[in-house]
Amino acid sequence: MRILLVGAGGVGTAITRIAARRDFFEHMAVADYDPTRAEAAVAALGDAGSRFSAHRVDASDRAAVTALLTEHRCDVLLNATDPRFVMPLFEAALAGRAHYLDMAMSLSAPHPDRPYEECGVRLGDAQFEQAELWEKSGRLALVGMGVEPGLSDVFARHAADELFDEIEEIGIRDGANLTVEGYDFAPSFSIWTTIEECLNPPVVFEKDRGWFTTEPFSEPEVFDFPEGIGPVECVNVEHEEVLLVPRWVDARRVTFKYGLGDDFIGKLKTLHALGLDSTAPVTVASDLGPARISPRDVVAAVLPDPATLGDRMHGKTCAGTWVKGTKDGAPREVYLYHVVDNQWSMREYGSQAVVWQTAINPVVALELVAAGTWAGSGVLGPEAFPARPFLELLTAYGSPWGQREQ
Amino acid sequence: MRILLVGAGGVGTAITRIAARRDFFEHMAVADYDPTRAEAAVAALGDAGSRFSAHRVDASDRAAVTALLTEHRCDVLLNATDPRFVMPLFEAALAGRAHYLDMAMSLSAPHPDRPYEECGVRLGDAQFEQAELWEKSGRLALVGMGVEPGLSDVFARHAADELFDEIEEIGIRDGANLTVEGYDFAPSFSIWTTIEECLNPPVVFEKDRGWFTTEPFSEPEVFDFPEGIGPVECVNVEHEEVLLVPRWVDARRVTFKYGLGDDFIGKLKTLHALGLDSTAPVTVASDLGPARISPRDVVAAVLPDPATLGDRMHGKTCAGTWVKGTKDGAPREVYLYHVVDNQWSMREYGSQAVVWQTAINPVVALELVAAGTWAGSGVLGPEAFPARPFLELLTAYGSPWGQREQ
């Protein structure tokens, strides 16, 4: 297998470090808008970097991406950029006759009149619209294959296959006790993406009603996370699992709740009240003259790059899927989860916990695709494939998952 | 008198409307970085605009400003820009042998090691350093001559001259009950300046100790404002009066407290925690390529222009000076104040209350200078001049002030 990795930020860099220890692929070309980032990712691999090369590419330039795929004879494009670039990369992969894998799906747009009641354009809609083209080409677009979405969807499929006869609710629950020394406020993941998922109307699925939306930060609940993280207040946010899981797994209700905490929610609400979450350009004075810039890009620019904070971070992050239903006629409630301790991921891989946890899952998935264990064509979510091989390989990577009966 | 007004934003435009009704000057040249703003201000005067002309000028370009003063034979430069441009305009006026008047003083810089205990560079320091040059040239720089600083300083001088024998404390107190229809958050005054004064370490004067600083938003107190505004929580902020009043008026303590309210304080704290209050340039993508921009300029760009909100605003704004001391051996406490009702200022002048209240005071002061009632040379604050003529002329302008014994 030959891979084109687009994006050498925090997640992309962690992908190279994880993949370098595995022998399922022949070559990985690492490309970024900023070539120094791609070069730094490859250089950091040292002797283990002989199967990697660094390149420059503009992820929004379909033709350039397709040319890079062809030039390096890549079988698959692995997208590790932010969600703005999903569509150009997804389309470039198809044009280049490559498989495609991403960790976030094409963006949503709120309902024009009833944004907090009905869906407008849903996450992934633009990708699923092209499913037939992918099926015809015999190529696989494996979408939402990070940790959340990704491993969380694998957990949902595993629960349906092996742990439940009937499922009442699947609720993805994400929480952490991470702190960053020396910063008042330093998000541990891309603020651009965090704003996108937290301020968009959260989406909920109910079997009788289909997909619908609510007010941001709705239905707060305190969820008790394992391995010493403890109780964290979680609220509904927009996330791919709610769109993916019901397509392949039978459940009466699917939700996603994120353990943001009061302080973070307050800051996001302020950004929104001021209009600083907006991606619509405004004109400001610059060294180049009056320039059109996106306020959200400025928020990202003033905050520290989360990928560089690993040395100052402490604590653990937990991603997981809570499932409620029945097995053999008896009620059952299970939380399937994956915890990463920042101290461990920094020591083992030099990557902070949140980006490392995102990065390991697409590498595991690619190894399953390379082996033919996961095979298919079209636009498919992680829950379209058998879960057990994935969970076993994840454990073999040295990163086991857990199951808690509750 | 011939006047060069630099700045045709909200305050500058209100100045033209107030001045157009007075006959103490011969000509007012109105200049702005954006010539369409200057033209709009003059055009709005209609038939009353014959003594006004519109021009383009970059307020940071000393030579261009001096040339404009000479070209239009101006006796005085009236600075209605934001405080970043105080020093170039102040120096351009001296070079052009004109008097100078502003409504905010040269900017402060915090103490490098003990920002919340000691002053670093104080507001106005850079201007007072040049006092001798102004004295020698026989020209007057009347600094801090808006409403606060400005009218508030006149009140302090009036209290010292006529109402008290000994003054224990002079506390400027500013509060409002303004609301803006249709906006979650819409500051009624320049957000650039509001951030500057609220997030800098607040300065306090005590006779035994001199000037010193505290933490932002310190010493909260509820002050009861007159004319139906009622009680508002006020906190210490950095303001020119604390630097000006002790130079000419004998008081044991001088403070400035602003009625910001919890919600506004929370938003300012968030901007600060994220670094969005900063004026240090960051690089972001723009239509012109990677551009260096100031995050605080972006905050200003995403918020509605306060000068345009008059039609949606409701309520009153109050500026005033609370004085505590003794008169004829008996304790006395007085609040001298000036209230503007937005409905009135919109109907009478088409200007919203906060900018109108700032704008009237420099016009009154210029009229006193033109008449020779206020005369002097050097760098002087409003309290360096007799207060009674100012207060009488303010009343004659149709905008009376009040006095409350407490």
Question: How is this fold's topology laid out?
Answer:
Two copies of one chain form a homodimer.
Chain A: E1 2-6, H1 10-19, E2 27-32, H2 35-43, E3 52-56, H3 62-71, E4 76-79, H4 86-95, E5 99-101, H5 125-128, H6 131-137, E6 140-142, H7 151-163, E7 166-176, E8 179-180, H8 191-199, E9 203-206, E10 210-213, E11 221-225, E12 230-236, H9 240-248, E13 253-258, H10 262-274, E14 282-284, E15 291-293, H11 295-302, E16 313-314, E17 316-327, E18 330-341, H12 342-349, H13 353-371, E19 378-380, H14 387-396, E20 402-405
Helix pairs in contact in A: 1-13, 3-4, 7-9, 7-14, 13-14
Strand content of chain A: 25-35%
Q: What is the C-alpha radius of gyration of chain A, as a whole number of Å?
A: 20 Å
Q: Share of helix among residues of chain A? A: 25-40%
Total domain modules of chain A: 2
Greatest chain-chain interface? Answer: A-B, 31 and 31 residues
Question: Class of the largest domain in chain A in CATH?
Answer: Alpha Beta
The named CATH superfamily of the largest domain in chain A:
Dihydrodipicolinate Reductase, domain 2
Q: What is the rounded distance between the termini of chain A?
A: 42 Å
By DSSP, the count of extended strands of chain A is 20
Largest sheet of chain A, described in full? 9 strands, mixed
What count of helical segments of chain A does DSSP give? 14
Category by helix and strand content of chain A: alpha/beta
